[in-house]
Amino acid sequence: MDRRQLLAGGAAVASFLPAARALTAQETNQPVEGGMAAGAMDEAKMPALEGGMFLMQSSQLAEQKGESDNVRAFAALEVAEQQAIAAAFGAEGAQIPLREDHAEIMAQLEAAEGQEFDMAYLQAQITAHEEARGVHENYAQSGQDPMARGASMVGVPSIDSHLVMLRSFEQQMQG
């Protein structure tokens, strides 16, 4: 994938940024200004938010541990995008717990190093993006929150772009 394609993807992600404020792992499960506790969240939004939390946390790890420039650049874009999606879903500042399967993958990623980490990260992102596509497609069609529906509508083609990028990076690393 050339730099123009990566930059185009970055431009798409950047369009979300004005609505985003940083989420941090240190935040509690208490309501914060402009945010809410996970327990108060609309249950229909939870699949998107749970998946988004995994995508964000694994990407934050990849920003630190990634060996490949492509992995680190993609991870930074993914973190920014997931922060924007959380804001659009009204979950800015909410601490959404990882699902058990996501927590297991995070533990595997934390234990991996170098190219092994990069490949495991790419594979985890591909799987999580494939799942997220269906979740956002569903919310875009039937969600009740107009802002979140809009984010999901824009999110589906963005996820498709991400999958193309991720698969390309994976093929490059496989030789």
Through-space gap between termini: 14 Å
* Rg on CA atoms, Å: 15 Å
Mean pLDDT: 83
Low-pLDDT residue intervals, each spanning 5 or more residues: 1-39
Largest sheet: none
The SS-based structural class is mainly alpha
* Strand element count: 0
Spatial shape: globular
CATH topology: Ferritin
The CATH class label is Mainly Alpha
Count of separate structural domains: 1
The CATH superfamily appears as Ferritin, core subunit, four-helix bundle
Q: Work out the helix count.
A: 6
Query: How helical, in percent, are the residues?
Result: 55-70%
What is the N-to-C succession of helices and strands?
HHHHHH
How much β-strand is present in the residues?
A: under 5%
CATH architecture field: Up-down Bundle
Explain this structure to me?
This protein has a single domain (43-174), classed as Ferritin, core subunit, four-helix bundle (Ferritin, Up-down Bundle). The protein is globular, with a radius of gyration of 15 Å. Helix 5 packs antiparallel against helix 6. It has helices at residues 3-14, 46-65, 69-88, 100-111, 114-142, 146-174. Helix content is 70%, strand content 0%. The protein is an all-alpha fold. It comes from Rubellimicrobium roseum.
Care to give the gist of this entry?
The chain has 175 residues and is mainly α. Helices cover 70% and strands 0% of the residues. The longest helix is centred in the C-terminal third of the chain and has 29 residues, at 114-142.
